[in-house]
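Could you help me review a protein record that somebody else here produced? What it holds is a sequence and that sequence's fold in token form. I need someone to confirm that the token line plausibly describes how this chain folds. Take the sequence as given and treat only the tokens as open to question. This is what I was given:
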Amino acid sequence: MLFCMRAVDIIRKKRDGGELDGEELRFLIRGCLDGSIPEYQVAAWLMAVYFQGMSDRETGELTRQMIDSGERIDLAGIPGPFVDKHSTGGVGDKVSLILAPLVACFGIKVPMMSGRSLGHTGGTLDKLEAIPGYRIARDPGEFRRILTKTGYAMTGQSERIVPADRVLYALRDVTATVESIPLITASILSKKFAEGAESLVFDVKCGDGAFMKTLAEAEELAESLARTGKKLGRKIVAVITDMNEPLGRMVGNFLEAEESALCLRGDTKGREDLMEVTLRLSAWMLVAGGKAKSPEEGIDRCRTMLEGGEPYRRFLANIEAQGGDPEAFERGIGTLRAPVRRTLRATKNGWIQRIEAYKTGLASVALGAGRNKTTDSVYPYVGILFFRKYGEPVQKDEPVLELYAETEKAADDALSLLQEAVHIGPSLDKKSPREESEGTGSTVSGMRGSERNGSTPRKSLILKEIVAL
């Protein structure tokens, strides 16, 4: 019984490789929140989990206890299905801004709880708040109203939803236990299930600009998300995508909202990488929501929907519903830029062999588009615009990119990083990191691994898919 339990016994059991049961995990989570278990003991348990791992049953039970630690968003009475998408974080990753209005056009409700930028990766909420007047849904009632009106709604994690995650993550951050796959899994799934999603599509980033640097690491996380989600009764698809180079041609908060609008308006030339990932994830959401029988059918339906223009109109409707000014946003496209500009020009004739995602992300942080710590402010109109991307020819002195900054120092610091990030060579003979990291489909017990079609372009960003529907 709970009153007989001691934190030290639970720590010892996990330290020695034992499997914790639901009562023990409930005791830990409650004690973590009410202060009856001191932080040093919670930290010791986190380190034991980091080294010993958790079984699938334990991870599922931890997720359930974290969900139960706070309120859930009640979507009762709103017709579904409810399908959400989550990315593990990348550079230039504005997929959610395109995907949400697109998928909502098919009658699927997209309740999206997103995060803010931290480190070299961008945050969806910061991109949305760069739109004039845009306000993240502040309470469950507002979230329900917007979701009902536009088919999708954007919010952040409140203090009342999964409070255990905020406490545990703060401790993980200072105890070097962030990288634990079971803890990452429970953190992600608890927030997504608390928002009301019935099915989830995960974009697990892999490569230089991702938290998971190798395909093996990304696959381990993807499989854990799929297995745990399935044990909790949810439909899960985990798509591993390449993040060795920034997605699209714009990095920065307003710039990425702008590029999302351009894609929704049909201006996708030169943005094939961004659209490949967006369409694949959107297609799986249609499959999970019962609106397509296969991802291939889903992609075809999404392309047709985009051609009709409804997703862009829904995007503008969501801006208005969340307090924004659609007309001011449209007027700002192509014009809302920070005042200090720098241009990086090619030093020789050749081809763009690589643009490093990680250094590009660091440059965006130097500009003020991201954060080194949660208390840092961000600037909405700073960022980077790429004129040339991987695989494209370039002439000496031709502009490769332009950056926008609030200060001369920020511009100089970012330009220095971008000079290191851009690689120009005489040919494309050398294998890129993207090609080297590619894999084939995988199989997880009880699930279906999806092989890439033989006609898929060699440099496809879709590396693996793990399906648990």
